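To: structure subgroup
Subject: Chain for Friday's discussion

All,

I'm putting the inputs and outputs inline so they're searchable in the archive.
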Amino acid sequence: MKVATLAVTALALAACSRANPVDPAKPAPPSAHQAHPPDANLADDVYIAYHHDAETAYEDVVADGESLNVRWLDPAAVHCANPVAQEPCWKPSDMKTRTRQLTPAERHELAQLVDRSGIMKDDDPPGPGGNRAYPFTLNIRRNGVTRKIVYYSAPGMAPMPDGFARVQGRMEDLLRGMMLAK
């Protein structure tokens, strides 16, 4: 009986090796139990979208992990007859737009900024409380966690939280760099 089992097993293995020959020059595929090396890109997976607009301002900066997309209001296009009217003094055609690839160093720096700023754990800033206020918005995704934070700027409001200020400041730096680029 043992001889018959061994003969059947040998025939089955021979058939498999003819159907799926092994090329010793090629590495074996990873098994399900084999550890896979970490993907360096996953460590720097970050998405940050910053937005602010008001009567005479418009800033939209998106770092989506691969590219940097910015849109801003051309200051020369602002023509406000009544800037206190609480409505934009611009139209979409007054906008400038630019896009470029993020460098690996920039992706890493943005990921580290989110991690070190504490912004993903900070309390939400207070709302406007019925006062006229200007919203500054950050939408952030880091390590699978997404957060939307809105800070309202107005006289008498609490100062901008430090983590928010750090991320917003970096996004504005990226915007300025794109505005000055030729």
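Points worth raising on Friday:
The radius of gyration is 27 Å.
The longest strand covers residues 46-54.

D.
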